[in-house]
Write a structure and sequence with these properties.
Layout: H1 23-31, E1 37-41, H2 48-58, E2 63-67, H3 75-87, H4 95-103, H5 109-121, E3 127-132, H6 140-151, E4 157-163, H7 171-176, E5 180-183, H8 185-188, H9 192-202, H10 209-219, H11 223-243
Parallel strand pairs: 1-4, 1-5, 2-3, 3-4
Protein name: Orc1-like AAA ATPase domain-containing protein
InterPro entries: P-loop_NTPase
Organism: Chroococcidiopsis cubana SAG 39.79
């Protein structure tokens, strides 16, 4: 008997209604659909997951999500979840691959990926699959299989990977071939206009432009830093209010 799949790994994280729209980044992601792989590689707290979640909600393409963790370093478990994620938007895909994964203890990745690639080729429309927290994957066989898949990926599927570090994949090769769109920590940092919108609209702090600039300089637009600074300002404002009651 196979273990049941954890369905929450397929849930697209919610986006707050007060979120600052990152139109410049969303446009880059939309343009990236001309290639095979989208990689967002940046430290924790940079907004990778939020950006991808927001993007999927505004795109017209069918999309799926898979949140990875250390337990997914088993190749059979990883590819079982991978196919199951694809099935969230196309229920009939990957039956042959899943059957092979269940019947063989250590199948070669070519044997089960070729049927999957062929099925993806037969799809009538394009779709997106997000692999979140890919830094959790350290198993070399998974990286090798992912390289094989991406090297032969049909145009019907676009993979988006979010990771705290660059994965051990042939990124330079795909970049030269215009098959890779990559966003890094510098790309994800808030501009001054985005910081102003975050502080005064999302957090409703009504700070002066001079104060916003000071926060921007101090945090360098790092999202987690902006959130901490905004919370600190909000707490100080509340404390001052209580003192003067």
């Amino acid at each position: 008997m196979t273990n049941p799949l954890l369905l929450t790994k397929f849930h697209i994280p919610p986006v707050r209604a007060s979120l600052v729209r990152r139109d410049r980044l969303l446009e880059r992601l939309n343009c990236s659909l001309e290639g095979k792989l989208i990689l967002i590689s940046a430290p924790a707290g940079s907004g990778k997951t939020t950006l991808l979640s927001e993007w999927l909600r505004q795109t017209n393409l069918p999309s799926s999500w898979l949140s990875l963790d250390e337990g997914d370093n088993d190749p059979i478990r990883f590819w079982t979840y991978f196919v199951a994620a694809l099935q969230q938007s196309h229920p009939n895909i990957g039956a042959t691959t899943l059957s092979m994964l269940r019947s063989l203890e250590s199948p070669s990745f070519e044997s089960f990926l070729i049927p999957l690639i062929n099925e993806i080729t037969s799809l009538s429309d394009e779709r997106i699959l997000v692999l979140d927290d890919y830094q959790a994957i350290a198993a070399r066989p998974i990286h090798e299989a992912m390289t094989f898949l991406l090297g032969r990926l049909p145009s019907q599927l676009h993979l988006a990977i979010a990771s705290r570090v660059d994965p051990p994949l042939p990124l330079a090769r795909w970049r030269v071939r215009n098959q890779l769109t990559q966003l890094g920590a510098a790309d994800l940092c808030f501009t001054l206009a985005e910081t102003t919108a975050f502080i005064n609209q999302s957090m409703q702090l009504s700070l002066s432009q001079e104060q916003v600039v000071a926060i921007q300089v101090r945090t360098e637009g790092w999202i987690a830093g902006l959130q901490l600074a905004a919370l600190s300002c909000a707490l100080s404002k509340t404390f001052r209010h209580l003192l003067h009651r």
